[in-house]
Amino acid sequence: MKIRNFRLLCALACSAWAVTLVGCNSAKDGDATDGQITLRLWATPNTSKPKEDLEKVVELFEAKHPGIKVQVEILDWGAAWTKITTAATSGAGPDVVQIGSSWAGSITDIGSLMSVSDVLDSAKKDLKTDSPFVRAAYVYMKPIYSDSVTSLPWLVDVRPLFYRKDVWQKAGVDIHEATTSWDRYFAALDKIKAAGVLSDGQKVEAIGIAGKNDWNVVHNFYPWIISAGGGVVNALGDSVLLDDEKSVQGVLAYLKLIRSGLSPKAYLEKTTAQVSAEFDQGRIATWQEASTKLVYLERPQEQGGAGNSVAAKNYGTALPPAGPAGRKLFVGGSQLAIFKSTSHPKEAKELLRFLTTDTTAVMRYCRLSGMAPALRKVFDSPYYSSNENRQLFKQLADDGVPYPAVPYWGEVETSILNTRFGNIIDIASEVNGKYDEAKVRAELKAAANQIRELIRDQLEKKPQYAAKIRAFRGR
Amino acid sequence: MAHFTSRRNRMAYWFLAPTVLGMAFVHVLPIVQGIWLSFLAARKSNLQLYLDAPLPDNGLFGNYKDVLFNSSSALHAGMADAVRNTFWYALLVTLGTSVFGLMGALLLHRAFRGRSLARTLLLFPWVVPTYVVGLLWGFMWQQDTGIVNIVLHDWLHLISYRPVWLLGPNTLWAIIIPTIWRFWPYSMLLLLAGLQNIPHEVYEAADLDGATVWQKFRRITMPLLSPVWSVLLLNGLIFNVYSFNIVIMMFGNGAGFPGRYGDLLMTAIFRNSFQMWDFGHGAAMSVLLMLGMIALVVVWYRIFRNDLTNE
Predict the structure, then answer these.
(1) Which of A63, A100, A361, A471 has its CA 20 to 30 A from that of A278?
(2) Does B48 touch chain A (CB under 8 A)?
(3) Bridge partner list, A38
(4) Predicted model pTM
(5) What are the beta bridge partners of residue A40?
């Protein structure tokens, strides 16, 4: 009997403790006893010290809004998609969240992002312009199937060519002239290869192309496809273009960089970071990477940069090559959005507006991260307009062609294109038999058919999508 | 006496109850939920519905049909490659860890100076986390700068060219070898324990009968290690079929594609369904895999039943 009572007592004690804990936890997020509001901001690592650097920007906001405290939480890029979509589904997310631009369509489709059309309207008034942001960003702000603006653009991922001035000079070619067409570009790279330039006693490769073990695979193929006049899908995301002859020619042109030995096949085993390190060490003459590379090359080694590297002493930036359909580039980046579950919509909108449209805040964060600003006005700053390596960022952003902001882009990119382009890289590497163009075409055809099936499935499942597309066409 | 046994057992049940409940919570419930999900069109666009998601348009078994027969399904498209790779991977890794484990166990079973140190050093790979193994070997396999080619080609001159390991058919070896390296110490430990349980008198009797070293190994050591082999085989096959970390880390930390010769069932399922929040298809594929593994366990049990039950 005593034992039974003891058990009962233990159970009651445990229950009371658990209830107390639950009670403690049930205080509403963001409420504070001193009347100050706390906003939670989720961001991905955009700098080498992501939390500290973002807090440097956020403190500007807090200084202007003494009643609001912003709690910055950094999500690793690898886990961000899962955490954000989980938060979107469960309603237990932060107030403001950074999302990858190409995720905007998918996350909007879940239905948990608040409309921020009013924030955009007031920003337009304040900034006295109808288009405060770079053109490409508008696609992600209001995804095709959304009735309202669900995010505002913050940072833009533009990708200039980084080149070794000394190597291009020794080969007797001008990169700005060479990038006016694909033919000239290939001819120039051939010249660099033929020149056999040595740097610190080591051979310099004409260009570096990273392989398939990387999240950039699709972003690397994409500019070549659209510059050839092709595409993956059309702007409305309801028709597949990937197996069109123009798209195929774009892919074949990209593969030519590998097949003609302009980029060593050994690089196909490497990630972007690994090939980027090869450029730093002086083994590559031409390399395309996100604008963050510039900050990395400028920063001294003691601060985690490559400022003392061989490349850092003699590099420049240039626009990527123009194809038969012109110079069309990949442009990604990040948006900021507000979860509907926020308890402080007014304050969250204030923060969103500040981070995306306050020139000082945007400028400060872009300087820290190396990303280009989505806010056009910031490009007028001497930091961009007077710096020879940054001058072209604005044009890169303007020439950028965004992926269609459809809810199923994630599946298209991660599941279908990543796999098929990976297979194509294997074919080009010739590790499993001689290169055969027919095999490349077959992979593109298979990818196109998979995407067609996916779109058909999506439009059938959600008739409202089809209705939206009809409405777009009607306009 | 019976009353005493019953009371004693009752106490044992009390002690066992939390474990049973815990196991039910972390094993049975997720399995039931997974099977339930495999019949639903649970995907990103209806995440809020989760277990209340509607049935697939193509019927109750729609997800299974897609995975098995729909050629435009991303999961189906790479499935043949993933099944083939997983088969060879699981088989060769299990075989490799067993063979190297046996060699290590036989070595450590002998008395020699520094045996304790050798045992500790040989266990070293086992303490390295699998994701670190994947990451490190990813660097080691690099054609131009990787230590593997430097040793094989530059130092030992065993090969006349530097192979590409992380592209094409060699990819399978690039994932098998690190996995064997990581897990063989575990097999060694179990086999060493098995060897130490074989009575010395058996070997003495064989010596009196004039048995050779090979005969003793074949007729005494191997048969008496059967229970250990059975556990190693089952554990190895199950663990390797569900292998994920090494491959995912070696090929772009989850962002890349291991290629037609490196993609395993787990990485394929993760990339093509769960990473896309397509729970229905992912669950269907996982259930099919689970059924396959259950069949494997049944076969295993029939083969090793006597070894497991005999004293």
Answers:
(1) A100
(2) yes
(3) A69
(4) 0.86
(5) A71
